[in-house]
Amino acid sequence: MADVAEILKTVRDEAKRRGVRWTTQRQVIVETFLSVSEHLTVEELHRRVRAIDPTVSAATVYRTVNMLEKIGIATRRDFGSGSATFESALNKEHHDHLICTNCGSIEEFHHMRIESLQEEVALSHGFHLSHHRMELYGLCAACYRLSHAASAPAIPLADSSIR
Description:
Elements (H helix, E strand, L loop, with lengths): L3 H14 L6 H12 L4 E2 H11 L5 H13 L3 E4 L7 E4 L7 E5 L5 E4 L2 H13 L10 E4 L2 H11 L12
Parallel strand pairs: 4-6
Antiparallel strand pairs: 1-3, 2-3, 4-5
Helix pairs in contact: 1-2, 2-3, 2-4, 3-4
């Protein structure tokens, strides 16, 4: 990953260029965002930032994340949960997503066969891909186990009258 100090300088310079005041709060927001590997909603990022600096407002987090997206440091994703999530766009290989429709967990994956098939399908239609996004929705292993355990028929207790 690029040096955090270098990224912070880039973000600071961009904030200045946009007329946005650079504050220690914005620095904490950017450092916290860069320190996580998972997808975060702005609300989750705000919760984590407030654990470090309780004075940071949700509005400051929203504005900072929007700026990170505009300058290519954050990627916005909407997985249908009602809240957009963001992930770092820095040094990330292409990946696709498995999204649990029950608990909302998001798992990243990469599979060369899928990538090859997508390219093959596009070319067979005379289409030349520039990029793509694949999102697969269903139940994660834990939610699947829970849903099937709850719906499994109960094992009848031994009837003591039958001998």
